[in-house]
Amino acid sequence: MTVYMTVYMTIYIMTVYIRTVYMTIYIMTVYIMTVYMTVYIMTLYMTIYIMTVYINCAKQPMCPRMKSDTDMVKCTCCPFLLQVIEEYVSGGMCGYDREGSPIWYDIIGPLDPKGLLLSATKQDFLKSKIRHTEMMQRECRRQSEKLGKNVEAISLIYDCEGLGLKHIWKPAIETYGERNYPEGLKQVFLIKAPKMFPMAYNLIKHFLCEETRRKINVLGSNWQEVLRQHIDPDQLPVAYGGTRTDPDGDPRCRTMINYGGTVPRSYYVQDSVKVEYDGSVTVSRGSVFQLEYDVTAASSLLRWQFASDGADIGFGVYRRTKKGGGQKVAEMLQVLPSERYNAHLVPEDSCLTCTEPGVCDLRSDCTFRNALKHCKQMSVTHRYLRKSDMTQS
């Protein structure tokens, strides 16, 4: 009897143990699948979001920051395009479609958005996008003269291979959302997208306007064949189904298309640059920190340096149009329109050359939508240098 009970209990315990192991494996499998699907859905959402931003931004007029008819002209205290942007922002122009429109390639997978925004300001990154846009505009004008017809739009090939969680980073998505593209996007070819992307796109495309839907082409496994229907093989890199190579035979045409990569930590500004600020202030949610400078002579210089703690901060420069105090910001002249700066990632350092005298307000604010609930600590330095001081120095 004792032997029987021992065997029975042993079998029972083993059965319970096996069931426990099985349930553990089952729960872990469900958990992993849930995490996987969450990441997958977020990736699809981000892809669709960026695609929509590209199309919508293509309808916008030129960004006001690029206009030159303001009362003050912005100068740059550091090189206009930093080396890290030149080397690690992926994409490039290569070839023309069958109608003669330039083709721009956006290579998403190798892009390191976090490394870029830790190595250069968001504004530097956006300036590079504006520079690329202006370059494509000039190329459209050259094609119009060469072909004897109006070429005013480009084709965009959006390579999604390698799209992943690293691209779903809030500051990067906000940067993509900046509207800095002029009119001129003819069509978008989205290639190498996740397998579930076409199904997800079919669900949300009905929320897009007809013009936007008409421009987006989500291609499947036959994407190379479809591209060749719109682009001659000799204008399409070998890596994308054509016959074009670099002079050295590179099938990816790296002399024209930058494939980016992971940004080395040696480029990270916070790890390599230490700034000593004059003081610090706290900007509460919904409030503004304002400094006034009475610019007494034309060609004087305003310079500012600031860093924020924990989150981005708004900043802009305005010139008063009336004498005396009490003028509302909406009535002032926008010299540098207020923007959100990722100063918690990369300290801001810039300047303005004043072409006219007047009272200027430097405004740091936390009034924008989605501002964090906690206060933002700012370390700041401002300088006002008169023309006479600059002449003497």
TrEMBL record:
Q: Quote the SMART domains the UniProt record gives.
A: SEC14
**What are the protein's UniProt keywords?**
Membrane, Transmembrane, Transmembrane helix
Q: Which Gene3D superfamilies match?
A: CRAL-TRIO lipid binding domain (3.40.525.10), GOLD domain (2.60.120.680)
Q: What is this protein called?
A: SEC14-like lipid binding 7
Transmembrane regions listed in the UniProt entry: 12-33
Please state every residue range assigned to the domain named CRAL-TRIO: 81-248
GO CC terms, sorted = cytoplasm
